[in-house]
Amino acid sequence: MEVILLWLFLILGLVLLCISFKKPHLKDWLLCYLTAAYFAAFLGELVVYYQMLSYPVRLFPLFQSSVLYEHLLLPLVCIYYYQSSYNKGILTCLLKALLYSSVLAAFEILLEKNTDLIHYISWYWYYSLTSLFLFLLLVRSLMWLMDDITGKRENSSGS
Fold this sequence. Notes:
The protein is an all-alpha fold. 75% of the residues lie in helices and 3% in strands. The termini are far apart.
């Protein structure tokens, strides 16, 4: 059952990734994806290394962490969050980050209670909620900073 779920998540993730890259601003979406994947992989390895949670059933058993989640699904959610908060105010970005992280945390709780895909050791649902919220804001802030730097370079080169 769990392996079938992982394959469904992989297929769904790849389809949604293709759809998300078809929208304008491909460079921004790709940069957001790669930034999120980089940080998610690093943080995911730390959480598993310090035995806060485990992934008993994995699509890629060579790794202790969830490669599918850290390299595809969470960065994909970051793209959709970034797209939905693109050119929006701070309050809207905060509320959308809370909404996205709440849905992800609720889904993670369901998976933890009903499958062997994730197992909390010294981890609690509110850690997931808080860390996902902060993660989305971190990636969004980095993207804002990169946009700001790029915009300043473009404006200063025309002078």
